[in-house]
Design a protein that fits this description.
0% of the residues lie in helices and 46% in strands. With 137 residues, the protein is an all-beta fold. The chain has a domain of 86 residues: Sandwich (Jelly Rolls), CATH 2.60.120. The strands form 2 sheets. Strands 1, 2, 3, 5, 6, 7 and 8 form a 7-stranded antiparallel β-sheet that branches. Strands 4-9 form a two-stranded antiparallel sheet. It is globular and about 45 Å long.
């Protein structure tokens, strides 16, 4: 994951190139944006929104948790390629499938899990914080 080779989030440019494959973008409450190197495991939470790009290839490790919840706001998941299944705890027998060019909104407080159905999968998540939880593996 830390194979970042062409980004400059530490520089004070008016326009900054960020490698979204290894950085998350944090949108703070004052609507300023900063880039943060992503770390393995459940995502770090900030007081604002985190935008991340996730790429999952055949054979990659599964999600770093067994589900998560975001009590501070709704989460958006937009699929760039592949296909995902999003299962919510309130309706575990009625998961939705999200394909290329589609998005889903996961309401605040809904425990949910994302499973890759079609590889390679790439998706964008816009996740609220700072509060939230996840179920460890």
């Amino acid at each position: 994951m830390n194979k970042c080779t062409h980004c400059c989030p530490g520089k004070f440019n008016k326009i900054t190139l960020v490698d979204a494959s290894c950085h998350a973008l944090d949108i703070h409450r004052d609507l300023s944006v900063s880039a943060r190197l992503r770390k393995p495991g459940p995502p770090e939470r900030i007081d604002g929104m985190t935008v991340g790009v996730v790429t999952v290839r055949q054979g990659d490790a599964p999600a770093p948790h067994k589900g998560e919840v975001h009590p501070d706001g709704d989460e958006i998941v937009y699929v760039i390629s592949g296909r995902l299944r999003v299962t919510g705890e309130s309706e575990p027998t009625a998961p939705i499938e999200v394909g290329q060019g589609e998005a889903c909104i996961i309401k605040n407080g809904e425990w949910h899990r994302v499973t890759v159905l079609e590889f390679p999968a790439q998706f964008v998540h816009i996740t609220p914080g700072p509060n939230g939880g996840y179920r460890p593996l």
